[in-house]
Design brief:
This protein has 352 residues and is mainly β. The chain has no helices and 34 strands. A hairpin with a 4-residue loop joins β6 and β7. The N and C termini lie close together (5 Å).
Length: 352
């Protein structure tokens, strides 16, 4: 049976929403950074949480305007990397690396770096951080770049065959390719386009190729996705308001829809993790912006949903910082409900 453990808030960072979290297994810590409060105040100070001891350690402040909202966090094995971000609706060009051992930040090289952007996708290949897509000022970023932390150098990614420019795409690293799918297009009088296509990028060959769209999910943005080790599960969405999803197999370039039987209600801004057997989700908000506090699990082999009812769950919330540790889903912070009430609390959902 899955179970929750309450996360101590002693020494925890100040509350924020839109924060990011990443698991650093070499250090046994979850790093929480960025985000904001009251919808505008950027948080440049984060925290490091140890699930083993249920304690927090402080992080040095990164005093760079713009590097707070919507900057994906990348863990390399010894450093935390991020590029650009978003504050007060303007992106600031720049990137930084954080060393937990030194509790210090260093700037990333800007020569050859991509444009300033927010709401972009980023993955780590084991040697390079790949940055693609997003919003650059009033335009969509159509180009990407690769950053090598060992040499502090950027290299442009080929744009030939790349997906159409978009923000809020879903991205994942398969071990050989970066997959990009979904996202938002430009605002027009007709509304904003929800993409239902994507692409596959091979960094060794510096080459893009298309992903099949046959039986793919409907267009959406900010989907919470998980990589199983062989397949990519895409479910939920910020826009689109559909509770459907699909599973993508890059080996055969095929999609298969997920069952709707016992599927959770539509939601966005929820937490998701891969337990080793199931995709586990918690929280989020519905079409009326009401926060959810329920848990569900999806088995891709059996194509089955089940409801989880573990005791001691955190309060209902969305826009939470979350990460998958080796044995649990980490959930912290976020927004509890209307009116927007801060949640400087969290929990660990231990996988059964």
């Amino acid at each position: 049976m899955a179970s929750w453990t309450e996360i101590s808030n002693r020494g925890a960072p100040a509350w924020r929403n839109h924060a990011r979290a990443v698991w650093a297994p070499e250090r046994g810590e979850v790093i929480v950074w960025g985000g904001g409060s009251d919808g505008s105040k950027a948080r440049q100070i984060g925290g490091r949480y140890s699930p083993k001891t249920n304690t927090w350690r402080p992080m040095a402040e990164c005093r760079v305007p713009g590097l707070a909202f919507f900057a994906p966090l990348i863990w390399t094995g010894n450093e935390l990397l991020l590029w650009s971000g978003h504050a007060q609706r303007s992106a600031a060009r720049g990137g930084y690396a954080y060393s937990p051992s030194a509790n210090a930040w260093r700037p990333l090289a800007t020569k050859g770096a991509p444009s300033a952007r927010s709401h972009h996708g980023a993955v780590y290949t084991g040697t390079d951080m790949l940055v693609w897509g997003g919003e650059s000022g009033s335009s969509l970023a159509s180009k990407g770049a690769r950053y090598h932390p060992g040499t502090d150098r950027w290299t442009n990614m080929s744009g030939v065959g790349a997906p159409e420019a978009r923000l809020q795409p879903s991205t994942v690293w398969t071990g050989t390719e970066m997959l990009v799918w979904g996202g938002l297009g430009r605002y027009t009088r007709a509304g904003q386009r929800l993409f239902d296509d994507g692409g596959r990028y091979d960094p060794i060959a510096d080459r893009w190729r298309p992903m099949s769209v046959k039986r793919a999910p409907s267009g959406r943005s900010q989907s919470q996705t998980v990589w199983t080790g062989r397949e990519w599960i895409v479910w939920g969405n910020h826009l689109g308001k559909k509770s459907d999803g699909a599973v993508y197999d890059p080996g055969s370039d095929t999609w298969r829809p997920m069952t709707l039987t016992r599927a959770p209600r539509f939601r966005g801004c929820h937490a998701a993790a891969w337990s080793g057997k199931e995709m586990v989700i918690f929280g989020g908000y519905g079409s009326d912006w009401k926060a959810y506090g329920d848990c569900h699990a999806y088995d891709p082999v059996g194509d089955r949903w089940r409801v989880l009812r573990p005791r001691g769950a955190p309060s209902a919330r969305y826009d939470t910082a979350f990460a998958s540790t080796d044995t649990a889903l980490f959930v912290w912070g976020g927004i509890r409900d209307q009116p927007q009430i801060d949640a400087r609390t969290g929990g660990l959902l231990h996988f059964a």
